[in-house]
Amino acid sequence: MRAKSRAQIVAAGGLTVLLALTACSAASGEGANASSQKNTAITADTTDISEGVKPDEEAIALLPESVKEKGTLTVAMDLHYPPTTFLAEDNATPIGLNPDIARLIAKKLDLDLKFENTGFDTIIPGIDGGRYDFTVTTMSPTPERLEVLDMVNYLSVGVSVAVSHGNPLDISNDDMCGRNIAVTKGSNAQLVHLPNISEWTCESKGKPAINGVTLPNVQEALTQLVSKRVDGVFYDTPALVWAATQQPNTFTVLEPQVDTRTTHTQAVGLKKGSELTPAVLAAVQSILDSPEYEESLEKWGLTAAAIDTASLN
C-alpha cells in the first residue's frame, strides 16, 4: 500500500492544491474570507474524466440483468466537501475525486450515471431504502455502517484539527479540553473519534470534556472558525490542508495527524447484500489499476491517499 502520512499529504498534495484548485470553502459565497480567492482553472474544468475510458467486460459480466436493462446508476453525495466532493463554479456540476470515481465506476460498467446531492447523514437511509444505488462520499467502513452497507475500499486518509492561523489559543491534539471543536453531522469524527479523544486526553485525566459542535458540513465549520464561534475544526486532513492553502493566513492545520487508534480507509457504499456489489468491486479494482485513478488523485492533491487493492469490508 502506498504511503499516506500527514507530511506526505502536505508535500505531495498541498503544492498541487495550492497551484491548481479553486477556493470553494463556503457554499454560495458564505463567509467573508471563505470565498475570497479563486482560480478559475479548475472550476471551469468540468471535463468528465471517464471520457474515452473503455468499459470493463469482466465487471460488466457481474452485473444483474435488471441493472443492465435499467442502464443507469444513481449515486448519492453531499457536494460540500472540497477537494473530494463539491460543485464547480457553475453550482451544478459535481467535481472532485469522488465524482471522478463515481463516473469511472459507471463507465467501467457501461452504465449512465445520475448524481443526487443530499446531506451526508441521509445517504445511508437513502441507500437502505432503495433511493440510491451507491455512494462515493469519503465514508469510512465502521462496524455500524457495515451492518447495513457493503463497502469497497478506494482511498485512505487521516484526520486533523484546523485552528485559526498561527494557533493563537495554543491548541494541540492532546489538549483540546474544554474547547469548542466543530465536527460534521453523521461523520466518524462526531460519532466516534472526538468522543474517544475527549475521554483519552481530557475526561480520564479530570479535565473538562471537549465540546463537539455538530455542523452540517465542513464549509460551515470553517466559516464558524473564521468568525471565532468555534475554536477548531476536526475533519479529514486533505480537506483542511486544501482550505489552508486556498486561504493563506486564515487557518493552521495542526501536525501530526490526530491518532484515533483506527485506520482511515474510505469506501464506496452499497446496500448490504446488493446484487451490484460484485460488479462494483471489480469496477473499483479496475479503476485503481488505471491511469485515471492517479490522474484524479494528482489533480485534487490527494496522491498520498492512494491505495492498491479494492477490498470488500
Tell me about this structure.
This protein is an alpha/beta fold and 313 residues long. It has 2 domains: 46-157 and 264-305, Periplasmic binding protein-like II (D-Maltodextrin-Binding Protein, domain 2, 3-Layer(aba) Sandwich); 159-253, D-Maltodextrin-Binding Protein, domain 2 (3-Layer(aba) Sandwich), CATH 3.40.190. Helix content is 35%, strand content 19%. It contains 12 helices and 12 strands. The chain has a 5-stranded mixed sheet, sandwiched between helices. A 5-stranded mixed sheet has the order 9-8-10-7-11, with helices on both faces. It has a two-stranded antiparallel ribbon with strand order 2-3. α1 crosses α10 (237-246) and α5 (97-108) runs antiparallel to α12. Residues 1-44 have low confidence and may be disordered.
What count of domains describes the coordinates? 2
* Strand line-up in the sheet with most strands: 4-1-5-12-6
Mean of the pLDDT scores?
Answer: 86
Overall number of strands? 12
Give the overall shape. globular
CATH superfamily of the largest domain: Periplasmic binding protein-like II
Write the layout of secondary structure elements.
Elements: H1 6-20, H2 40-43, H3 57-60, H4 65-70, E1 72-77, E2 86-87, E3 94-95, H5 97-108, E4 112-117, H6 120-128, E5 134-139, H7 143-146, E6 149-156, E7 159-164, E8 180-184, H8 188-201, E9 211-215, H9 218-226, E10 232-236, H10 237-246, E11 251-253, E12 265-271, H11 277-288, H12 291-299
Parallel strand pairs: 1-4, 1-5, 8-9, 8-10
Antiparallel strand pairs: 2-3, 5-12, 6-12, 7-10, 7-11
Helix pairs in contact: 1-10, 5-11, 5-12
